[in-house]
Amino acid sequence: MTPPDDVVRAVEAVLFASAEPLGVDAIRAHVGGGDVVAALATLRGDYAGRGIALVERGQRWHFETAGDLAHLLRRNREEPRKLSRAAIETLAIVAYHEPVTRAEIEAIRGVQTARGTLDVLMEAGWIRPAGRREVPGRPLAYATTPGFLTHFGLSSRRDLPGIDDLRAAGLLDPVDLAFEAALGGGDAEE
Questions:
Q1: Is 182 helix (H, G, I), strand (E, B) or coil?
Q2: What does the DSSP 8-state code read for residue 3?
Q3: How many structural domains does the chain have?
Q4: pLDDT tens-digit readout, 7-44
Q5: CA-to-CA distance for 190 and 187, rounded, in angstroms?
Q6: Has UniProt tagged this entry with the keyword Cytoplasm (predicted)?
Q7: Does 169 score more than 90 pLDDT?
Q8: SS3 for 60?
Q9: N or C end of the chain: smaller count of CB under 10 Å?
Q10: CA–CA dist 172, 79 (Å, integer)
């Protein structure tokens, strides 16, 4: 087995020492020259099937424990965060329509969104302010974060399930299916 070259070793060291995931440009700033993308590909292959894996989430790279071994490192059972239906709906709207304003969220949901709903999602690190719209009142827009991608195991927002995936998983309400059928978009089950 040939030893890894200096760029691969440097990229590996930077990623191990980093407290947060890093993009290619940030890694390049630490290691200087060399083909960082090729080094990442080499490292990903080297760590495949091992106790830790090199993963990319939202165009940022980091090492994480292999999913099938994560249970070995948990000392305390994490209490899953229970989100209200309003929070789940709001998170889905932000994920699928970002950047989106509070008024747009309310228009899609059909009800007013409590301030606390957005606060809970920001505290969880799943959404963030994403600037202001250039319209009267300059409302704040929201978008998902890299933490959202990491928590839900997504590489990018393109990995979010489509309507066919949701239907196949049985996650669409019968009301949604009936509404879609009424609009001529598909067959509602009776």
A1: helix
A2: P
A3: 3
A4: 999 999 999 998 899 999 999 999 987 899 999 999 99
A5: 9
A6: yes
A7: no
A8: strand
A9: N
A10: 26
Which tens digits make up the pLDDT trace of 57-101?
A: 889 999 988 878 877 777 665 566 688 888 988 998 999 898 999
Q: Tell which wins on pLDDT, 106 or 176.
A: 106
Residue 57 domain flag: yes
Domain region containing 38: 6-73
**Nearest to residue 45, comparing CAs of 12, 17, 68?**
12
| Residue 119 burial (CB count, 10 A) | 12
Domain boundary among 73, 93, 115: 73
Residue 66 · residue 50 · CB < 8 Å: yes
| DSSP per residue, 106-150 | HHHHSSPPPHHHHHHHHHTTSEEEEEE-SSTT-PEEEEE-HHHHH
- Taking every pair of Cα atoms in the chain, the longest distance, rounded to a whole number of angstroms, is 64
DSSP 23: -
Q: Is the peptide bond before 80 cis (omega within 30 degrees of 0)?
A: no
